[in-house]
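Sequence and structure are no longer studied apart. To make this concrete, we show below a single chain and its fold as tokens.
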Amino acid sequence: MNAPVTLGQEEAFARIRLLRSPNIGPVSYAQLLRRFGNAQAAVEGLPQLVARGKKDYRPVPRDRIEREVAAVRASGARYLFHDMPGYPALLREIESAPPILTVRGDTHLAARPCVSIVGARNASAAAVKLAREFAYALAREGFAVVSGLARGIDGAAHEGSLPATIGVIASGIDIAYPPQHSSLQERIANEGLLLAEQPPGTEPRASHFPSRNRIIAGLSLGTLVVEAAPKSGSLITARLAGEAGREVMAVPGSPLDARSHGCNQLIRDGAVLVQTPEDVIELLQGFDGHPRSRFREAQPHFVAADDEVLADEPADICGLLTTVPVGVDELVRQSGESAGAVQMALLDLEVAGRLVRHAGARVSLAGLADRRAE
């Protein structure tokens, strides 16, 4: 991303409108800004761009964005754009970083070294106490503690680190979830920092939580899993942290407790075993981008150069795509086309609702479940 800029009101409005338009995600948003130069031109040019695929396309209506902006203001929140001062630098580095966040609280907290603490919702009393103690000790050492405001480990991490805590929610900035954490969420907004990617008024859905988890991982130098079952959301956060080249840490637990199996699995797969806050501090103080953990090391992937001009004509790559994810770099190699032409083809497919983007710069054709979710 480019250096921080100052946005005019109309361009800021157009950016929100562009991102809220059908089938526009973080990657296609960035590509459209690059292709058209600004969001106002991108919104105007989208219908013609999609018309090449013989599909009628209408950006989200202006009045819907006007209502959203009013709701953001009414909730005491504000917008934070990807290239503006205050946007977290570490988060900006990850693939598919959210182009626009709504925030309440002190954005300077995100400029501190951050560590995420995540774990089971139905955590044991011992694990909850441990998470609270870790968070308290890390906050005293100057870290900001990031978590997702879920029950169990997340809530304990926030409580232990207040006011040096960042809550990332899967709903709109004005929705408290879970309801029993409404007071905690309000405290974080008033004393720490609360972040949301979804528009105000959005109730959390299952598909929102992996997106929230990528923000938690992206904000942080490292992710610590205190207690988690296999296939839990906490392990998704750990995997995303590993793919982003951040440290992945886990507290070991008894093999007799299913809630510890996820942490033990992480350690077996290369996460760093930690037992005290000092272990975490040693790993993260002076972190240079080379994690000691070997869990899900960052995968090399194709990234379009900032000054790359997307081709006017898309590559013919539909025959190379299935519902199984494949790397964009592999599509470039196998098609023999330029990177700009491949990216233009992917953009066309995504805006038409036929493409799904996955972590690690991988893409696939949308399956029936993906299309029903549109």
In short: The chain has three domains: 9-97, 104-284, 318-372. Residues 300-307 have pLDDT under 50 and may be disordered. The radius of gyration is 21 Å.
